[in-house]
């Protein structure tokens, strides 16, 4: 396949649904069309946050992750709709099914975006024209607007789809990057978060162009593999293939929750971790999976995220074992600041059929007895 | 301070004390080597506050003159640079001179290094130990005992006391025990001591012992070991190795060794080593290193290993003797292999007590060593 792709010029699309949740809601309530609408966590709760909003709402300054009270202050007429995730999942499936009518090489990235490899299809059809057909099909048959980026690889396609919203169609060729990509501030570069941006800024790098002209060795020393990748991407290089299986290849099972209000109450945070551990255990059981690597995630009120993980000799699958690991991590690393989101993830999961439990020399009798009890249940 | 010293002797001393130094130490002065010259000789000290090593180079011994001290004094020099510098110096001797502000000049042959030193007054004092609990052991024996047990200490910090080796002495017999709670290694030996000396729960960090054994060689000469509540000191001819002891109660391990067995196997150590090495080729990816063993006739055991993705391996080993019940058991083959590599006997015996309980591996030649393992259970 790599061989085949190298002979032709690869053509990839990045399809990005425009304010997806809000667009889906408008299908159910067309009378709201043209009005400022926001999807927000339970609007009765003061701390609910805006998950997404229509472009009309955005014009007032409403932003994703903004608390509802603040969004209301910016836009007093804002119509708040609680999220209805079943609807979004259903529409998402229809949308991806539509994309696969054009090519089987569709890789969903999240509920509302995905990549398409149309290298073969683009031979008989001009790429831009094909993108136009995809956009029309998604809008015409499902009523959902999207922006499409057309480029020779994933990174450029993703950057291109961001350049015009809504209903954008943007072509980004390698020869365009100097003109279109390099002037952009680094924070707009896919893969550069607030923290990385800050570190780069401190080193005097402000734009993607600055990054492209930075010392590759320095970037590698400073950011490791991520630094190498950033440097390559800034030069429009991205070797990743479109892999339709990627989403189905489950590597981790995680659950997280945004707290009703920010807190530094250990007992409350531990209660949440215990609950999330149970949810992870249920999920693992459902898929007959286990993990030797449990990760704790904490996000503070400045949206700074910390993850810490712990590996164990024996696989974890039961809620109490998962919670034990999450709790140990929490007690070791939590520094008492206000937390807005907590999460528990089982990393590198694998089938229970391949799992072994190394008995403990001090407690093997108890362990065997506990396993027997489980088996009888 | 100003002295001239034999390069070879100095390099060895510097390398020894450097073993204790952690370049990431948060205490700045501990990233350096303390060098102290007085009329008797030169003292070098390195420490990471868990381990401290002091090396002494006398002015001269029967064989040779090592050192000329023109002016006594002391300085602390950055180990990270100093160790590499002295190794690469060209001359047979090195001259070190320290002037104001701890500015050190290192001369050898036609080479001159000017190094910024640190204030030796800031360097912590080495612990002063009460020497009423001590015993003597030949260097090569201590080195063997460390090698034969330290691999079994826990690498996980969940039970800190298990990251150390437990030292016990009773009636002139010293025992080292290490366990990560999945395998246990025990080794004992007679030592020279006051018959009344009884020690227990002396838990020496595995890392300290590993560093100590790197400094030791296979010499017959005796090392004196001094033990206090919180520290252990190994006294060599010209070197002192201090280590902090681990806090906490080491678990009682004596009663863990099963006294009854269900299946007894005696076999060539090398046969089992090779079979396990082959079987582990397949489980390298899976990382669990699970090996299955089953009795297969009067004098045969069958070893298998299965990897869902790669394939499987089966091998039959002829054993010298096989007595007792039929058995099927699974265990971490890597753990067994680690132990087999330190057993100094061509023939070994294994006592199994059932598929879900621990088993013991011992050398046939002597009873001063045993290894205990727990099996694995499938889901």
UniProtKB/TrEMBL annotation, chain A:
Residues the record marks as active site: 113
Note describing how the cofactor binds: Binds 2 magnesium ions per subunit.
Gene3D superfamilies noted in UniProt: 3.30.70.270, 3.40.1170.60, 5' to 3' exonuclease, C-terminal subdomain (1.10.150.20), DNA polymerase, Y-family, little finger domain (3.30.1490.100)
Signal peptide interval: none
Subunit structure: Monomer.
Domain of life: Bacteria
Cofactor(s) essential for the protein: Mg(2+)
Gene giving rise to this polypeptide: dinB
Basic and acidic residues bias locations: 237-252
Protein name: DNA polymerase IV
Enzyme Commission number: 2.7.7.7
Location of the protein in the cell: Cytoplasm
Renumbered residue ranges of the record's region Disordered: 237-260
Predominant location category: cytoplasm
UniProtKB/TrEMBL annotation, chain B:
GO biological process, one term: DNA strand elongation involved in DNA replication
Single GO MF annotation: 3'-5' exonuclease activity
Record domain DNA polymerase III beta sliding clamp N-terminal: where: 1-127
Compartments reported by the entry: Cytoplasm
Gene Ontology cellular component terms for the protein in this record: cytoplasm; DNA polymerase III complex
Pfam annotation, one family: DNA_pol3_beta_3
Protein keywords: Cytoplasm, DNA replication, DNA-binding, DNA-directed DNA polymerase, Nucleotidyltransferase, Transferase
Record-annotated membrane-spanning stretches: none
Main location: cytoplasm
The family this protein is said to belong to: Belongs to the beta sliding clamp family.
Protein name: Beta sliding clamp
Organism: Salsuginibacillus halophilus
């Amino acid at each position: 396949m790599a061989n085949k792709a190298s002979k032709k010029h690869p053509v990839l699309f990045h399809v990005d649904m425009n304010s997806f949740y809000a667009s889906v809601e408008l299908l159910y309530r067309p009378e709201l069309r043209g009005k400022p609408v926001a999807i927000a966590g339970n609007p009765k709760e003061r701390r609910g946050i805006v998950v997404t909003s229509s472009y009309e709402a955005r014009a007032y300054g409403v932003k994703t992750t903004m608390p509802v009270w603040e969004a209301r202050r910016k836009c007093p007429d804002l119509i708040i709709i609680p999220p209805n995730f079943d609807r979004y999942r259903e529409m998402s499936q229809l949308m991806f099914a539509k994309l696969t009518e054009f090519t089987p090489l569709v890789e969903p990235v999240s509920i509302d975006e995905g990549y398409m490899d149309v290298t073969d299809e683009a031979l008989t059809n001009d790429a831009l024209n094909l993108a136009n057909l995809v956009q029309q099909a998604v809008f015409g048959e499902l009523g959902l607007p999207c922006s499409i980026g057309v480029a020779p690889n994933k990174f450029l396609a993703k950057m291109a789809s961001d350049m015009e919203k809504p209903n954008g169609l943007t072509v980004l060729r390698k020869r365009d990057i100097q003109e279109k990509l390099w002037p952009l501030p680094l924070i707009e570069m896919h893969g550069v978060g607030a923290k990385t941006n800050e570190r780069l800024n401190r080193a005097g790098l402000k734009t993607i162009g600055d990054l492209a002209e930075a010392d590759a060795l320095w970037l590698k020393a400073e950011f490791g593999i991520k630094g190498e990748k950033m440097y390559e991407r800034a030069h429009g290089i991205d070797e990743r293939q479109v892999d339709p299986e990627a989403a189905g290849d489950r590597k981790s099972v995680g659950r997280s929750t945004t707290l009703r209000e920010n807190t530094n109450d250990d007992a409350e945070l531990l209660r949440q971790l215990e609950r999330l551990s149970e949810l992870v255990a249920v999920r693992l059981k459902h898929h007959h999976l286990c993990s030797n690597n449990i990760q704790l995630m904490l996000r503070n009120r400045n949206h700074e995220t910390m993850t810490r993980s712990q590996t164990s000799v024996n696989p974890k699958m039961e809620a109490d074992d998962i919670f034990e690991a999450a709790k140990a991590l929490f007690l070791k690393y939590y520094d008492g600041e206000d937390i807005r989101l907590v999460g528990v993830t089982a990393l590198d999961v694998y089938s229970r059929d391949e799992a072994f439990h190394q008995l403990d020399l001090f407690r093997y009798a108890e362990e065997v007895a506990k396993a027997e009890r489980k088996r009888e249940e | 301070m100003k002295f001239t010293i034999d390069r070879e002797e100095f390099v060895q001393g510097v390398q020894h004390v450097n073993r204790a130094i952690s370049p990431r130490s948060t205490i700045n002065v501990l990233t350096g080597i303390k060098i102290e010259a007085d009329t008797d000789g030169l003292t070098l000290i390195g420490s990471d506050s868990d381990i401290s090593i002091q090396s002494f180079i006398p002015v001269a011994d029967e064989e040779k003159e090592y050192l000329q001290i023109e002016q006594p004094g002391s300085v602390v020099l950055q180990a990270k640079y100093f160790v590499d510098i002295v190794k690469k110096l060209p001359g047979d001797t090195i001259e070190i001179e320290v002037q104001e502000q701890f500015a050190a000049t290192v001369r050898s042959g036609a080479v001159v290094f000017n190094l910024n030193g640190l204030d030796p007054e800031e360097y912590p004092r080495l612990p002063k130990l009460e020497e009423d609990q001590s015993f003597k052991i030949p260097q090569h024996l201590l080195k063997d005992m460390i090698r034969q047990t330290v691999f079994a200490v826990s690498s996980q910090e969940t039970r800190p006391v298990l990251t150390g080796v437990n030292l016990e002495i009773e009636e002139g017999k010293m025992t080292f025990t290490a366990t990560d709670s999945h395998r246990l290694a025990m080794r004992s030996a007679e030592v020279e001591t006051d018959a009344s000396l009884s020690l227990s729960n002396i838990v020496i960090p595995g890392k300290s012992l590993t560093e100590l054994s790197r400094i030791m060689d296979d010499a017959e000469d005796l090392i004196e070991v001094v033990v206090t509540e919180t520290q252990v000191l190994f006294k060599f001819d010209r070197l002192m190795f201090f280590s902090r002891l681990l806090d906490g109660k080491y678990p009682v391990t004596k009663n863990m060794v099963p006294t009854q067995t269900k299946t007894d196997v005696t076999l060539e150590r090398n046969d089992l080593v090779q079979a396990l090495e082959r079987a582990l080729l397949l489980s390298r990816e899976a990382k669990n290193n699970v090996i299955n063993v089953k009795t297969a006739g009067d004098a045969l055991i069958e070893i298998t290993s299965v990897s869902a993705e790669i394939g499987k391996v089966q091998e039959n080993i002829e054993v010298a003797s096989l007595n007792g019940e039929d058995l099927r058991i699974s265990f971490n083959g890597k753990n067994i292999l680690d132990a087999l590599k330190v057993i100094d006997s061509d023939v070994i015996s294994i006592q199994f007590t059932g598929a879900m309980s621990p088993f013991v591996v011992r050398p046939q030649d002597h009873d001063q060593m045993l290894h205990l393992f727990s099996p694995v259970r499938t889901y």
